[in-house]
Specification:
heterodimer, A: 129 residues, alpha/beta, Rossmann fold, 5 helices, B: 133 residues, globular
Chain lengths: 129, 133
């Protein structure tokens, strides 16, 4: 089985890097982007099929627009939006599968469980189709 | 009979890759990880300094010279070498000619073979170098 690929979008290397390393240790292939623009470039290039995008709405510049763009252009990619403001979290609810689930500081184990849940749900949907 | 003392697993050398071209950075970092390195990615010099300012340790810096922001790759290398004069630095650029003052850094012109990056990283962080120190 190929490793699921996660794209983490966060401008803060001190937040992005530890999360990326944790997910790598858990067996995921992890790509990192410092902004929404970088994330689009990685998705557009398509060298590695991305399964889940985890994006910080606050730090990545335009996380909401990124999520909407992913929905329109890469509908199989699951999106988790995270933010530290309640209003941002509310808005994110419309763009994620089950609403925003993460607030800073991120609980790595909780995020891991959420990523696994999204991937499992996607597999179930595939089986149904 | 005494149990042999268990040695801790050796830490993978850590390479800080500073490159504003996302796709180039992602590809280099993937290759370095596959070669066994621990890799920290930064899209600009400020991000690299932010990481190091938090007290994180690295064994090698691989940085593009032309980057947006307050510092280019040469300025970043100077700042890092001022803190740690023995830190190996690899500078890369689309300009074929190396800068006048490399200050001990290795220069790798673009475009380069990504495997060459891992080879250089190994040469600069490998056991021979550590034994020589």
């Amino acid at each position: 089985m190929t490793q699921p690929c996660i794209l983490i979008v966060d401008a803060d290397v001190l937040i992005r890097h530890p999360l990326a390393e944790y997910l790598r240790e858990c067996g995921f292939r992890v790509l990192e982007a410092a902004s929404a623009t970088e994330a689009r470039q990685v998705l557009e290039e398509g060298r590695l099929p991305i399964d889940v995008v985890f994006a910080d709405v606050d730090a990545s510049g335009d996380g909401f627009a990124l999520a909407a763009w992913i929905r329109g252009n890469h509908p199989v990619v699951r999106v988790i939006l995270a933010g530290s403001h309640a209003t941002a979290a509310e808005s994110a609810g419309d763009l994620c599968e089950d609403g925003p689930i993460a607030a800073k500081p991120y609980d790595h184990q909780f995020l891991l469980a959420e990523i696994r849940r999204l991937l499992a749900a996607r597999e179930r949907n595939k089986d149904r189709d | 009979m005494r149990e042999p003392e268990r040695q801790p697993a050796p830490r993978a050398p850590c390479v800080l890759v500073v490159e504003d071209d996302t796709l180039v950075r992602v590809a280099i970092c993937e290759d370095l990880r596959e070669a066994g390195f621990s890799v920290v990615e930064a899209a600009a010099a400020d991000e690299a300094l932010s990481y190091l300012g938090a007290g994180q340790r690295i064994d090698l810096v691989f940085t593009d010279i032309q980057m947006p922001g307050r510092l280019d790759g040469i300025g970043l290398a100077r700042r890092l070498r001022a803190r740690d004069p023995g830190l190996p630095v690899v500078l890369t650029s689309g300009n074929a000619a190396p800068p006048d003052d490399l200050d001990g850094a290795v220069f790798l012109p673009k475009p380069y073979d990504h495997r060459r990056v891992a080879e250089i990283a190994l040469e600069l962080t490998g056991p021979q170098r550590r034994e020589a120190e």
